[in-house]
Design a protein that fits this description.
single chain, 291 residues, alpha+beta, Diaminopimelate Epimerase, Chain A, domain 1, 2 domains, 17-stranded mixed sheet, binds the ligand N[C@@H](CCC[C@H](N)C(=O)O)C(=O)O, cytoplasm, EC 5.1.1.7, lysine biosynthesis
């Protein structure tokens, strides 16, 4: 594809974690980190927490081995252009786009991601449910530091890395845009997403998040899953041990997600996904962004 061809985009969000969707079924677009960062720029670009490039699995070198199970690959990029393994809100919006574009039918479908296949239940409208795989909780304890204060945190991997810190007040997360928190680079050599969590009631928590590669966002789906599993273990609950599923409501700045951990260890996430606009990139601007 040359940069002078018309390139379509859509804009969508899931609990206000917003994405620019770029359909590129044949994988022809050379989307550099710089181009993604320019597209996600909220003043000089379209604006978004990240980009969802929609590519046929068979046309993407990282997804060819998943093509037998999942026709479409979610090539997710953070707002700074970096690549991440997985995006929970993104995969719901991705599925909603596939239906919107007539590329799939409502019902059950599989989507290829860098973290492996994710199975999605997609109704014609309303919430989308995704099976997010198993959470891994390495034993080592980690510490989250922000603006001179520190909290113990739980290391949770949902395909991508998270540090979950329970705090007394979400205001302790301060202004995450100005002062990014950090956690030990030895544990997280590729960076980490950091969640600050408070209790709201039984099986009900609220979080704020600083995302690797995107800064503070209004929601993070993988983060909400990590938070729910960390909260369950803290509360002495483990579905693998009891055979009883455990559900938490996780409030985020942009809404609410329902997270259920099943006895087989898999985590299901249910939440909204909306397409809000579609258009085409202005050719001259796109040529500059892709240069
Ligand atoms: N917002 C996402 C997570 C996106 C990736 C993350 N920033 C990372 O680098 O791991 C979600 O909804 O899960």
């Amino acid at each position: 594809m040359t940069s002078t061809q018309r390139l379509a985009f859509l804009k969508g969000h899931g609990t206000e974690n917003d994405f620019v969707i770029v359909p590129d079924p044949d994988g022809l677009l050379d989307l550099s980190a710089t181009a993604v960062a320019r597209i996600c720029d909220r003043r000089a670009g379209l604006g978004g927490d990240g980009v969802l490039r929609v590519v046929r699995s068979a046309a993407h070198p990282e997804a060819r081995d998943q093509a037998g199970e999942a026709e479409w690959f979610m090539d997710y990029r953070n707002g700074d252009g970096s690549i991440a393994e997985m995006c929970g809100n993104g995969v719901r919006v991705f599925a909603r786009y596939l239906l919107h574009a007539g590329l799939v039918e409502a019902g059950d479908l599989a989507i290829a991601t860098r973290a492996g296949i994710r199975r999605v239940h997609l109704a014609k409208s309303g919430d989308v449910t995704v099976s997010m795989g198993r959470a891994e909780l390495p034993e080592e304890s980690v510490v989250v530091t922000l603006d001179g204060r520190s909290w113990p945190a739980r290391n949770v991997n949902m395909g991508n890395p998270h540090a979950v810190a329970f705090v007394a007040d979400l205001a302790h997360a301060g202004d995450l845009r100005d002062v990014p928190p950090f956690s030990p680079a030895a544990v997280y050599p590729d960076g980490v997403n950091i969640e600050f969590v408070v209790d709201r009631g039984p099986h009900h928590v609220a979080m704020r998040v600083h995302e690797r590669g995107s800064g503070e966002t209004r929601s993070c789906g993988t983060g909400a899953c990590a938070v729910a599993v960390a909260a369950a273990r803290r509360d002495g609950l483990d579905p693998a041990a009891t055979g009883v599923p455990v559900t938490y409501t996780v409030d985020v700045l942009g809404g609410s997600l329902t997270i259920t951990e099943l006895p087989d260890g898999t985590v299901e996430m249910t939440g909204p996904a909306e397409i809000v606009a579609e258009g085409t990139f202005e050719a001259a601007w796109l040529a500059g962004a892709l240069a």
